[in-house]
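Write out the 3D structure for:
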Amino acid sequence: SLRRNPVTGALSGDPDNNLDVEQQLSRDGAEGAIGLDAPMALVVSPDNRHVLVASGSTAGPIGPLTVLSRRAPAPQLGFIELDRDGDAIPNSQNHIDSLVAPTDAIVRGRFVYAISRQDGAVNLFERRLSHIGPEDEDGGHLSFRQAWRNGEGGISGMAWPDRLLLSPDGRSLFVSSRDGDSLAVFAREESDGSLAFVRAFHRNAGHAGLLGAYGMAMDGASQYLYVAGSYESAIAIFAHDGSSPQRLTYVGAVVGGQNGVSGMDGIRDLAVAGEGGGSQLLGVSDAASTVVVFD
């Protein structure tokens, strides 16, 4: 972990020389094997108390969802638990069965969502918020609640899912699939975190911008969803209405090489910076080694 300037956002510290480095954790570190093989996503909880790492490893030990605590004074990060596919669910005859090599996770309040690319599934966990510090380290911080799997209960568009996004209003959850060229849409219940599948959008159904669907971003007012189409150098645009049964309406796509747009080759990740009329959409393109900015 590095020190962050809260004003400028700049990071300080040199891991090689241990200058200003508060702590370094590794899978072979002093804290033991803590599930950091092939880390695919790192999420800090909104209350700044925990860090979750999704490990996409499928070679050797299957990647888990790792939970770390943020503590002060140092060490700032402390290992809490691993949640792995096949783990028994306490006080139950069941076990976690859709969490092979998770690739992304989201935290909202006491709820955690994690996707498994191998299982084509979204998993829901509930966080235990009543404990802080060392007493939280008994391996019971996350409790598995439910999983939604591609091909079950009418769910589609989640073959080999890659990324999750929760709308800022908390009413919708989206799952992108780069190999499936698709976007799955769920309605979300704030009280218990449960999901209900709504619909799926596919590139082969005429929705341009979803070929290689990967990174997603949404404005703070939850009005528009943007999806990076990494295989066609495009961004798909959807209008969002959290009160509508359909949730999303396809608007169109911005395509590299058209209308003066450039630097979109291999576009991968998206982010919305700023608020209201002053916000901008930022896109990171791997193949072009560029950051694309849209007003």
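The chain has no helices and 21 strands.
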